[in-house]
């Protein structure tokens, strides 16, 4: 999460989002807060981007929505700013 790939290739972005989404969704619900609280602002933003991209795949949405809820609460994002993550 600290060194995301810099590319304009959509296939690479999609593959990276899918892998990141799988990893994020494997973290137990009881550990989400702990992980989120250990991240700095840039890392929180990057995780939010991965959550959005991974949700677009349609897999693990239940887990990813939990992450989204906790990330929004942590960084106090309003919905008009969320669209900039897409």
Write structural notes for this entry:
Helix 1 (10-26) packs across helix 4 and helix 3 (41-55) packs antiparallel against helix 4 (61-75). The chain has 86 residues and is mainly α. The model has no long low-confidence stretch (mean pLDDT 83). It has helices at 10-26, 32-37, 41-55, 61-75, 79-82.
Radius of gyration: 12 Å
Main pleated-sheet profile: none
> What is the terminal-to-terminal distance?
17 Å
* Share of residues in strands: under 5%
**Structural class of the secondary elements?**
mainly alpha
H/I helix tally: 5
Oligomer: single chain
H/E element sequence: HHHHH
Average per-residue pLDDT, rounded, comes to: 83
Give helix % range. Answer: 55-70%
Number of strands: 0
Overall morphology: globular
Low-confidence stretches: none
Question: Which labels suit this protein?
Answer:
66% helix, mainly alpha, 86 residues
Question: In a few lines, what is going on in this structure?
Answer:
The chain has helices spanning 10-26, 32-37, 41-55, 61-75, 79-82. The chain is an all-alpha fold and 86 residues long.
Please give the structural blueprint.
Blueprint: H1 10-26, H2 32-37, H3 41-55, H4 61-75, H5 79-82
């Amino acid at each position: 999460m600290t060194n995301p790939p810099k590319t304009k290739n959509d296939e690479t972005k999609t593959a990276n989002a899918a892998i990141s989404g799988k990893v994020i969704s494997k973290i137990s619900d009881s550990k989400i807060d702990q992980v989120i609280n250990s991240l700095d602002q840039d890392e929180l933003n990057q995780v939010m981007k991965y959550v959005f991209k991974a949700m677009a795949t349609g897999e693990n949405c239940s887990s990813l929505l939990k992450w989204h809820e906790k990330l929004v609460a942590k960084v106090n994002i309003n919905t008009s700013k969320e669209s900039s993550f897409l």
